[in-house]
Amino acid sequence: MAPTSPAGFDEDADNSHSERVTKPLLDVISCSGADTTLVVTAARLIQADVRTFGSPELWLDQLSRRESDASIEPADVVMFVGSAERLLSQRCLQRGLVAAPDSIITAAITDASFDLTMSIVNHGARGLLVLPGPTERLSQHLKEIVDPAIRCRDHRRAVVRHRRAAATLTAAENDVLEAMLTGMPNKQIALRLSIGLRTVELRRSKIMKKMKAKSLAQLISFICLAQQQDGC
Q1: Quick check: pTM over 0.90?
Q2: Domains plus CATH for the chain?
Q3: Is-contact 56 90, C-beta < 8 A?
Q4: Which of 13, 61, 133, 218, by CA, is between 20 and 30 Å from 4?
């Protein structure tokens, strides 16, 4: 298995935001001691930065620290490595989808029967490598996964960001928001909801602040993004 630093990062990982514009960042996670060497080698052949983790738990621990440490960037692609049976029994893909909605969740499996492959895909994998294999072929397949992830990186992260912001709105604020999105003026909103005009104004202000919107048009755009089912 590829060596993992105490913090769970590959020592060669580059945290430069400026280079991240075009350079992909991969989190490669070993499940049940699976060897990640082939995946890491393939990733470096396509000029990707790699962070390796010895277990899903180490990876989840890093994610838990991300909110308080802005230097920890979200990965473009998260790849769980191991047998399909292990990935399924440990619910690696489901955990990845919940924990890292701003990343593309993928798998590199060592037992590629048709049924197991379909199960991996049905459980959320949006890219798949089959191990072992020639490094050149693996790197090409990995590039086919990574390139779309880079192209839609900003959009995908915007979806997640606005979705999280929308989730902070209270039920009362959502009532006002629903009326706002129809273009209803504040006085009509107050009459419709049987609340005071000042209450509408305060809730409207809170909505704009939470969503970080500077205009109604921008708010509508952000809400549309938040309601998208997929970040790409």
Answers
A1: no
A2: 19-151 (3.40.50.2300), 159-226 (1.10.10.10)
A3: yes
A4: 133
Q: How many residues does the chain have?
A: 232
End-to-end Cα, the chain, rounded Å = 32
Would you give per-residue pLDDT tens digits along the chain (232 residues)? 444 433 333 334 444 444 445 689 999 999 999 999 999 999 999 999 999 999 999 999 998 888 778 788 889 999 999 999 999 999 999 999 998 888 999 999 998 788 888 999 999 898 999 999 999 999 999 999 999 888 888 787 788 888 889 999 999 999 999 999 888 999 999 999 999 999 999 999 999 999 999 988 889 888 887 887 655 5
- DSSP secondary structure, the chain, as one string: -----TTS--TT----TTGGGTS-EEEEEESTT---HHHHHHHHHTT-EEEEESSHHHHHHHHHHHTT-TTSPPPSEEEEEE-HHHHHHTTHHHHHHHH-TTSEEEEEES---HHHHHHHHHTT-S-EEESS--HHHHHHHHHHHHHHHHHTHHHHHHHHHHHHHHTT--HHHHHHHHHHTTT--HHHHHHHHT--HHHHHHHHHHHHHHHT-SSHHHHHHHHHHHT-S---
